[in-house]
Amino acid sequence: MNFRHLRYFVAASEHGSFRKAGVALGVQESTISRRIRDLEDGLGSALFHRHSGGVCLTVAGQRLLSKAQKVLRYINEGAEIVDAVGRGTEGQLRVGIFSSLASGFLQDLLRTFAAEHPGVYVEVVDGNPAEHVAAIRQFRLDIAFLTGTLEWPQCETTYLWSERVFVVLPEAHALARKEEVKWHDLAHETFIVSDVPPGQEVHDYLVQRVADLGHHPKIQAQFVGRDNLLTLVAIGSGLTVTSEATTAAHVPGICYRPIIGEVLPFNGVWSPKNDNPALRRFVSMAKMMARRQGVDL
């Protein structure tokens, strides 16, 4: 028994005639008759009564009909799902992030993709670059958006956008009176970072920048997430730094000031072996948005 046998059987039962079933399916009447005979031989039971006016189901045929219709419906539904996934209109996309979604390029990209592909479930995962890249290589993530200019082996990397770097200050801090700040202004400040991503990367970034000035920065780890870290800045626990997208987050008691000359490049990273159609559409949309913003790809 195969799909074609069931298809011919259901068509013949619905039309009451092998000839009419053949016309509906675009095949010869003899083909319908032969395949149904093969089905009956395989099952060891007659499925139709043949008469001059056409055919009608036997008791065995009646018992088989509902099951056959259900099987064909499942197969057709499965084919539609596979087709939709293949066209990227349905499916799943797993995105690793290393930046705030409060505003900016990444928020716009995710919003636009969701609007144009409502059948694709997008799962967003926070994490550090090494974790994200490992997950991409193992196909546990489809794409990640990471800072810096590193090339990751076994991965495609494309620059998409940049964000300015801001220091986060309590509103009453002396530097809040400035429109912009320099690293020299921050060299003797106490900074706080989160113990969750991107806390370690922020720590390393601060060490590098302040060390370039001949100082060792005072950095304290806080066991809180990104949002609560900003609240700790507001109550005077220390300063922190963040990318431009975060500045859309309004937390009472803090202000953001750009650090002169500091810009973070953001790249999309994915595996060239990943055949997820939703990923191809997502990357295509990201590149199109980047070109509109003047990025030369």
TrEMBL record:
<keyword id="KW-0804">Transcription</keyword>
<dbReference type="GO" id="GO:0003700">
    <property type="term" value="F:DNA-binding transcription factor activity"/>
</dbReference>
<dbReference type="Pfam" id="PF03466">
    <property type="entry name" value="LysR_substrate"/>
</dbReference>
<comment type="similarity">
    <text>Belongs to the LysR transcriptional regulatory family.</text>
</comment>
<protein>
    <submittedName>
        <fullName>DNA-binding transcriptional LysR family regulator</fullName>
    </submittedName>
</protein>
<dbReference type="GO" id="GO:0003677">
    <property type="term" value="F:DNA binding"/>
</dbReference>
<dbReference type="GO" id="GO:0032993">
    <property type="term" value="C:protein-DNA complex"/>
</dbReference>
<dbReference type="InterPro" id="IPR000847">
    <property type="entry name" value="LysR_HTH_N"/>
</dbReference>
<dbReference type="InterPro" id="IPR005119">
    <property type="entry name" value="LysR_subst-bd"/>
</dbReference>
<keyword id="KW-0238">DNA-binding</keyword>
<dbReference type="InterPro" id="IPR036388">
    <property type="entry name" value="WH-like_DNA-bd_sf"/>
</dbReference>
<dbReference type="Pfam" id="PF00126">
    <property type="entry name" value="HTH_1"/>
</dbReference>
<keyword id="KW-0805">Transcription regulation</keyword>
<dbReference type="InterPro" id="IPR036390">
    <property type="entry name" value="WH_DNA-bd_sf"/>
</dbReference>
<feature type="domain" description="HTH lysR-type">
    <location>
        <begin position="1"/>
        <end position="58"/>
    </location>
</feature>
